[in-house]
């Protein structure tokens, strides 16, 4: 059979003849994909001790599920690569008995590393898609949870699962995701980020158009809202769509706290992101063109801090921004303990040395450090990278046109966001198009009793989550 000929050059392909009680058979498998204990404990004793005269009889006595008999060579090749054992009555004959003996080596479920929370569940996804689906099944214990699997990648044949809740999710969203993934033509799919880049509505946008999370509780909650999840085997992160810009600044911890406290934290995050993007460009614009905007008491302090600094504000700002980015990249690429030391010691040494050497002013150093600190408040790592990048276009336009340049850059940014979509849904919803009903969980989070309806932009089959009249009769747990 040509299937075996293709594998003979691989040293981990095993094929040998085995004598049984009354028949000879050929056993073939890929050693690195097969659990040898399953072969030795559940298959070989049956072959040697039980009486059988055909593959049909052998199928009945082997105590393993998922056993099939096939004459399709494509199925045989696929099953070999999935960790199945092939049993033939002759070396190259058909049909074949295909027995599942896949080895399961995966990291244990551990704590979230990116979306860590003080309260709430402490489980995070791992690299095994089977384990990840199990984590979702435990939380969405309902027959309506629908999982559609396919293989993507001409070489990798990576397993991808699309999750949705039947009767809730909009079928158009589900079919859009399935069709876009089917249209992918790429040799290697190593992570969910590959899928995100290939099926986004606008691949040239720096903004992520799928929510990336490592928390099973967040995925199960979002699936209940009517969204679609995408799991990739080998990736500990799950993609969720369609999504909106506001969701990237909403931590799942917000739902574990009192709604007043959660709303306060969410507003702080939104302010911190705005501060992180605008503070350095505003410093450059004001010191370059608009001295009259500075209060007289503060003007003296600024003049004193810049006395002896030979660089113009733009070069001073770009220098410090690049130093911060270098420290951040160095800390991320080095081992954990070394990276933390480099970040702390490097920041202190370089910041102090640059001020004492007269390269930068101490006020700008404070602004840049606060901007870097504010950028870390984003709960989703992908949007944090976008925020870091946005500062540089604002800086350049602030140099050329002052405050007017910042306004122009903001207009370009808003135009891009207004045109951006996620699975065809507006990315700026509920800001644009304005939807008052979805504002209950946008800039602030209202009590659960106010969330009787699912987000309007999802066009779910069941817009109502529960009866609002019944909710008013009973006080909410966080009121």
UniProtKB/TrEMBL annotation:
Per the UniProt record, which residue ranges are transmembrane?
A: none
* GO BP term, pick one: spore germination
Report the GO terms under cellular component: plasma membrane
Instruction: Family membership, please give it.
Output: Belongs to the GerABKA family.
> How is it placed in the membrane, per its record?
Multi-pass membrane protein
Q: Where is the signal peptide?
A: none
- Name the record gives this protein: Spore germination protein
């Amino acid at each position: 059979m040509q299937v075996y000929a293709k594998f003979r050059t691989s040293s981990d392909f095993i094929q040998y003849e085995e004598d049984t009680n009354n028949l000879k058979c050929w056993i073939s498998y890929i050693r690195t994909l097969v659990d040898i204990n399953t072969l030795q404990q559940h298959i070989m004793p049956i072959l040697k001790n039980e009486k059988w005269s055909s593959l049909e009889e052998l199928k009945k006595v082997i105590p393993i599920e998922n056993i099939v008999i096939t004459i399709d060579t494509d199925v045989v090749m696929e099953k070999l690569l999935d960790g199945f054992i092939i049993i033939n009555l002759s070396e190259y004959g058909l049909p074949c008995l295909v027995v599942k003996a896949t080895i399961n080596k995966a990291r244990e479920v551990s704590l979230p590393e990116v979306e860590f929370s003080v309260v709430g569940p402490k489980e995070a996804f791992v690299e095994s898609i089977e384990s990840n689906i199990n984590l979702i099944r435990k939380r969405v214990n309902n027959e309506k949870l629908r999982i559609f699997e396919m293989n993507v990648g001409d070489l990798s044949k990576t397993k991808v699962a699309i999750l949705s809740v039947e009767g809730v999710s909009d079928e158009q969203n589900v079919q859009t995701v399935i069709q876009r993934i089917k249209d992918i033509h790429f040799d290697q799919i190593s992570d969910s980020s590959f899928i995100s880049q290939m099926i986004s509505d606008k691949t040239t946008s720096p903004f992520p158009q799928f929510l990336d999370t490592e928390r099973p509780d967040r995925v199960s909650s979002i699936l209940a809202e009517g969204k679609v999840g995408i799991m990739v085997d080998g990736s500990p992160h799950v993609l969720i769509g369609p999504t909106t810009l506001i969701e990237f600044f909403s931590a799942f911890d917000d739902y574990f706290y009192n709604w007043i406290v959660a709303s306060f934290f969410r507003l702080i995050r939104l302010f911190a992101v705005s501060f992180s993007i605008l503070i350095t460009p505003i410093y450059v614009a004001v010191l370059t063109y608009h001295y009259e905007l500075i209060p007289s008491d503060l003007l003296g302090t600024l003049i004193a801090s810049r006395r002896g600094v030979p660089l113009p504000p733009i070069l001073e700002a770009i220098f410090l921004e690049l130093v911060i980015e270098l420290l951040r990249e160095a800390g991320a690429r080095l081992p954990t303990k070394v990276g933390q030391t480099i970040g702390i010691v490097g920041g202190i040494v370089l910041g102090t040395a640059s001020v004492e050497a007269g390269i930068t002013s101490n006020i700008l150093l404070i602004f840049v450090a606060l901007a870097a600190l504010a950028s870390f408040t984003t709960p989703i790592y992908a949007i944090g990278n976008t925020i870091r990048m946005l500062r540089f276009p604002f800086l350049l336009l602030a140099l050329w046109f002052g405050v007017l340049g910042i306004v122009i850059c903001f207009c370009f940014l808003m135009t891009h966001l207004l045109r951006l979509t996620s699975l065809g849904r507006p990315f700026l919803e509920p800001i644009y198009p304005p939807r008052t009903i979805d504002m209950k969980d946008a800039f602030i989070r209202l009590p659960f009793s106010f969330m009787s309806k699912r987000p309007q932009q999802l066009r779910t089959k069941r817009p109502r989550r529960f009866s609002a009249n019944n909710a008013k009769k009973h006080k909410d747990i966080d009121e």
